[in-house]
Specification:
Elements: H1 2-17, H2 29-57, H3 67-84, H4 97-134, H5 136-142, H6 147-171, E1 174-175, E2 182-184, H7 188-248, H8 256-315, H9 324-330, H10 333-354, H11 369-373
Antiparallel strand pairs: 1-2
Helix pairs in contact: 2-3, 2-10, 3-4, 3-10, 4-5, 4-6, 4-7, 7-8, 8-10
Keywords: Membrane, Transmembrane, Transmembrane helix
Subcellular location: Membrane
Protein name: G-protein coupled receptors family 1 profile domain-containing protein
C-alpha cells in the first residue's frame, strides 16, 4: 500500500512540474495547439448541448424510439465535459496533495465508467435499430413501455461499474499523469494487458458489432424492397388482366346488379391492397433513411474509436518510464489526436440532428425562419 501511495505521489509531483501547461509561455506551435485543444473541448460540449436542447423542444424527439439515441448523446456529453474540466493536459493542481490524489482517483473511475458506457450505448442503439428492421413485433413490444429501455440502459451502467473496478484491481492499475487517465502501472505486462482489454471492450467490440448490425440492416431492407417491387409488379399485371377481361363483359339487365357488386368488391380489395403496400413502402423508405444516417454515424464512430485508441496509448502507455522515448517523440501529437477524437465524437449529435429522416431541422433555417423564431421555434413546426 505504501508503494502504491509513493507511486501516486511521484506521479502527481511529476504532473505538477514537468507536464503542467504554462499558457503564459512563449509563442510556439504547441502553444497554439494547446489553446485550440481546449477550444475544441468547449465547442464539443456546446454541440452536445444543442442536441439536448432539441431533445426537449422537438416533440418527436421525446418519443420512446429515440431514447437509445439520447442515451448515446448524453453519455458522449458527459465524456467530453469531463475533458473540458481539465484546463491543460496534466492533472489537478490544487494546493493540497491529498485533494489532488482524491480528485485523480475519482476522475480515473469516471473515465473508465464513461468509456464502457459509451461503448454499451452504441451497442444498444445498434441492436435496437437491427430489431426494428428484423423483428417488428419485438420492436413494438420494446416500445410499448419504458421498462425494457430503462432497464437495458441501467444494465449497461451496472456492467460498466463492474468492469471498471474488476479490471482496475485485477491488474492493480492507477492513473496516468495526463488527465488522470486509467490503466497506468509500473508493471509493463499488467499495463499492456489491461490496455488491450480496455481497448477491446470500449473500442473494437462496439465498432465490429456496429458494422455487422449495419450490414444486416442493409440486407434486410434490400429484401423488403425487392419483395415490395415483386408485389407491385404482380398487382400491375393482375390489374392489366382484369381490365382486359372486364372490357369483354357486357352485363345484361338481369345480372348487372350482381356484376356491379363483384366489381365494387374487387375495387375495394385493390384499394386496401394498395394502401397496405403504400404503408410498407413508406416504412421501408424511413428505415432506409435511418440506415443512411446509421452508416454516417458508424463512419464517425469508427474514426472516433480509432483516435480514442491513439489518445489512450499516448497518455497512458507512453508515460511509463520504459516508453519515455515515445513520450518525447509524440508529445506534440497528443493534443492533435485529442482534437480529432473530439471532432469525430461531436459529429454524432450533429448527424443525429441534420440527417434525421423524421424531423426536418433545416426548416428553421429556410426563408428567414431562424431569424423569426431562432431557438424559440415551435417544436410542432419542425
Amino acid at each position: 500500500m505504501s508503494n502504491r501511495t509513493t507511486t501516486r505521489s511521484n506521479l502527481l509531483a511529476h504532473l505538477n512540474t514537468t507536464f503542467s501547461i504554462n499558457f503564459d509561455s512563449v509563442f510556439t506551435t504547441s502553444y497554439v495547439i494547446n489553446y485550440l485543444d481546449y477550444a475544441v473541448r468547449i465547442l464539443a460540449v456546446l454541440v452536445h448541448l444543442i442536441y439536448i436542447y432539441f431533445m426537449f423542444r422537438v416533440k418527436k424527439f421525446r418519443s420512446r424510439t429515440y431514447f437509445y439515441m439520447h442515451n448515446v448523446i448524453i453519455v458522449s456529453l458527459v465524456y467530453v465535459f469531463h475533458y473540458a474540466c481539465y484546463t491543460g493536459t496534466g492533472g489537478p493542481t490544487f494546493r493540497s496533495l491529498e485533494l489532488n490524489l482524491f480528485f485523480c482517483y475519482l476522475s480515473e473511475q469516471i473515465w473508465s465508467i464513461l468509456k464502457y458506457m459509451r461503448a454499451f450505448s452504441i451497442l444498444l442503439l445498434a441492436f435496437y435499430r437491427l430489431i426494428a428492421v428484423k423483428n417488428i413485433n419485438l420492436y413494438k413490444k420494446m416500445n410499448s413501455g419504458l421498462s425494457f429501455i430503462l432497464f437495458s440502459i441501467l444494465g449497461s451502467l451496472i456492467t460498466s461499474l463492474i468492469l471498471t473496478f474488476v479490471l482496475k484491481y485485477a491488474f492493480n492499475t492507477t492513473y496516468s499523469v495526463y488527465f488522470c487517465s486509467p490503466g497506468y502501472s509500473d508493471n509493463i505486462k499488467d499495463m499492456i494487458i489491461a490496455f488491450i482489454l480496455n481497448i477491446f471492450i470500449s473500442n473494437i467490440l462496439p465498432t465490429v458489432v456496429n458494422l455487422v448490425a449495419y450490414f444486416k440492416i442493409i440486407a434486410k431492407l434490400k429484401l423488403n424492397r425487392d419483395s415490395l417491387n415483386r408485389n407491385n409488379n404482380k398487382e400491375a399485371a393482375s390489374k392489366t388482366n382484369k381490365a382486359s377481361n372486364n372490357s369483354r363483359i357486357t352485363p345484361n339487365n338481369e345480372s348487372s346488379m350482381g356484376t356491379t357488386n363483384v366489381f365494387t368488391t374487387q375495387t375495394s380489395a385493390n384499394i386496401i391492397s394498395n394502401a397496405s403496400n403504400t404503408v410498407k413502402r413508406d416504412l421501408n423508405v424511413k428505415q432506409s433513411r435511418f440506415a443512411k444516417q446509421f452508416i454516417l454515424m458508424n463512419l464517425f464512430i469508427v474514426l472516433s474509436n480509432l483516435f480514442s485508441v491513439i489518445v489512450d496509448f499516448l497518455i497512458v502507455l507512453a508515460t511509463n518510464p520504459a516508453f519515455y522515448y515515445l513520450d518525447a517523440l509524440l508529445w506534440q501529437f497528443r493534443p492533435i489526436a485529442r482534437i480529432l477524437f473530439l471532432i469525430f465524437q461531436s459529429m454524432i449529435p450533429v448527424l443525429s440532428i441534420l440527417f434525421n429522416p423524421e424531423v426536418k431541422f433545416m426548416k428553421i433555417f429556410e426563408k428567414g425562419n431562424f431569424l423569426k423564431r431562432g431557438f424559440l421555434c415551435n417544436s410542432s413546426i419542425i
